[in-house]
Design a protein that fits this description.
28% of the residues lie in helices and 32% in strands. It is α+β, with helices and mostly antiparallel strands and 203 residues long. It has a 5-stranded antiparallel beta sheet. The radius of gyration is 18 Å and the shape is elongated.
Length: 203
């Protein structure tokens, strides 16, 4: 019954897929633009050179033998700063892999990688009415219109109560979906806000 209710919420209203655990929420800072592009293009199988600021791209990392190590997304925060996510199970392994590449193989790249896993909390929500749910939770609902926040885009904004957040329009369910990131100190407040809003729509 619970599984069927979750499927119904996801297809009919809004469903919280998970309060995303602190994966490798890494802020990747680059000292030069060319180094940034080279680094991302080398670690992912798909190109990142033309990723605009405020856009997100899904990527796949391979091991040395060509098998998949992990997948995740990278967000372009500014010209020389990216926010990278990985799967929960591989977070530590990916972090170690990035450091190995920079310190022993690609020493020509001036790249600084910092894990910020404990600093961020993330909530994934999906379903056809998720935009309505979010509208009740953010200070400026116009920020997440279809025009202002297209698929695989993200914005920096505020939830009600002055909670700073990043909202990415990402979906892995086939329905409209978002990931809401807040500073971890505000995780419970953000979750309560979104949860109570979803209940108003029977989600």
């Amino acid at each position: 019954d619970e599984v069927m209710f979750e499927i119904w919420c996801n297809k009919s209203i809004a469903n919280f897929l998970e309060a995303v655990p602190p994966q490798l929420r890494s802020t990747v800072k680059f000292e030069d633009w060319n180094g940034a592009i080279q680094f991302l293009n080398r670690i992912y199988t798909n190109p990142f050179a033309k990723l605009p600021i405020n856009k997100v791209r899904y990527g796949i990392m391979l091991r040395d033998d060509g098998l998949v190590m992990d997948d995740g997304t990278s967000w372009r925060i500014s010209e020389n700063e990216y926010f990278m996510t990985t799967s929960t199970a591989q977070a530590a392994k990916v972090m170690a892999w990035l450091e190995e590449l920079l310190q022993t193989r690609w020493t020509d790249l001036k790249v600084n990688v910092t894990s910020v896993s404990e600093q961020w909390a993330a909530i994934a929500i999906s379903g056809p009415r998720t935009r309505e749910v979010l509208n009740h939770c953010i200070e400026d609902p116009s920020a997440i219109t279809n025009e202002n926040l297209p698929f695989m885009g993200f914005i920096s904004t505020e939830l009600k109560g002055g909670i700073s957040c990043r909202i990415a329009r990402i979906s892995f369910s086939g329905e409209l979906g978002y990931e809401v990131y807040t500073i971890s100190d505000y995780a419970n407040s953000a979750m309560d806000l979104l949860w109570n809003s979803a209940k108003e729509f029977d989600g």
